[in-house]
Amino acid sequence: MKRLVVLGGGESGVGAALLGKQKGYEVFVSDKGAISKKYKEVLLNNKIDFEEKQHTESKILNADVVVKSPGIPDTVALIVKLKENLIPVISEIEFAAKYTSANIISITGSNGKTTTTLLLHHILKNAGLDVGIAGNIGDSFAQQVAEQSYENYVLELSSFQLDGIEDFNSHIAILTNITPDHLDRYEYDFNKYVASKFRITKNQKETDYLIFDADDEAINNWLKENKTSAKLVPFSLEKELEYGAYVKDNNMIININKEKINMPLSTLSVKGKHNTKNAMAATMAAQLLKVRRQAIKESLEDFEGVEHRLENVAKVKGVAFINDSKATNVNATYYALECMDKTTIWIVGGVDKGNDYNDLLPLVREKVKAIVCLGLDNEKIKNTFENVVDIIVETAGAEEAVKVSQKLAERGEAVLLSPCCASFDLFENYEDRGRQFKNAVRSL
């Protein structure tokens, strides 16, 4: 009996354990931290052996295969030791893919991947396809392969998940964009991060497709210097394409097969340039899966958008409060500020992942009247913006940040939470940060 060791007892780890048990492995789950009550119950109910708050090496180094949580860096001593012992260390995505013959559409990128994933899933589901959604979102891919076996999966994949693949392949891969993010995991080398994203196409064949942003410098540079077997399917806001998707006269035009799609941007339910790109990518993937033009258009018109992503929370005394807690890097915040059409009080800060805020200066100068810092260390934010914004205030939590912002804002202005940073200094995660912000707004 082969031994599967799973490192990390969260959503992806417990999913991998369930699939491993179903496929006849002897399974052991090990988490350096505490395993939450919800996941512990699943492990106990399924009689899966586990430990928490420690990694017992003797129980791990005897594995035939190790599935590790995307949150564990490759540089950790235990992972280095496993690799020295030639024990394969893979991601849950790689492990689960071996056990499904489903059609896989996977989506990666620094920004836009959640919206694109949810939008594509919405289109395919409405069109009657048997489709699951997994990866960085929803229930674990491995658990769904074990319990549901959909015919199609839309997977949102982070660079960390892609780092752990060997043979995994997607029939359609979407690369939304690549901007500096998570550089702390890639030795502050942007090229290593880019290479990590492009692992999404490493096993693609001539019969597969790579949908990509043709306006993105990092993507174009990689494609000039490297080869992929997949058919390239570009989208652009800057140029008209003979093959692919582009914008002309405020219409989104998609021309990749006999059914040309022409749709006014005003009818899209998601707004902003970045969302036009997300809609182009999702639409082309749906077309390649033979979804009818009319079905795609209807889904693009009624899609609801993503919580914590430019989400309108409430208007209080004429001031709009907007929750963009999902903006954990500079590029995401750039999009948010670009979409603002009112004078803005900007709430920013958290755990800096090597951010360069200079790209934001022109937008901040044009739109932001005050900055409210929401993080433990705000020196870099203050140093970057003190010459373009008169008011910079430091706060110690969501409630205080909202109250201060309300005092600073006048009727007709907006308060935007778009932190640009990870949330782990004051919050559990970006969802927790967004919920605390919304609760604070509602109790004003």
From TrEMBL:
One of its GO terms (molecular function) is ATP binding. Residues 107-286 form the Mur ligase central domain. ATP binds at residues 109-115. Pathway: Cell wall biogenesis; peptidoglycan biosynthesis. Keywords: ATP-binding, Cell cycle, Cell division, Cell shape, Cell wall biogenesis/degradation, Cytoplasm, Ligase, Nucleotide-binding, Peptidoglycan synthesis. The keyword Protease does not apply. GO terms for cellular component: cytoplasm. Its EC number is 6.3.2.9. One of its GO terms (biological process) is cell division. Residues 308-420 form the Mur ligase C-terminal domain. InterPro entries: Mur-like_cat_sf, Mur_ligase_C, Mur_ligase_C_dom_sf, Mur_ligase_cen, MurD. The keyword Ligase applies. Belongs to the MurCDEF family. HAMAP family: MurD. This is UDP-N-acetylmuramoylalanine--D-glutamate ligase. It comes from Polaribacter butkevichii. The lineage of its organism: Bacteria, Pseudomonadati, Bacteroidota, Flavobacteriia, Flavobacteriales.
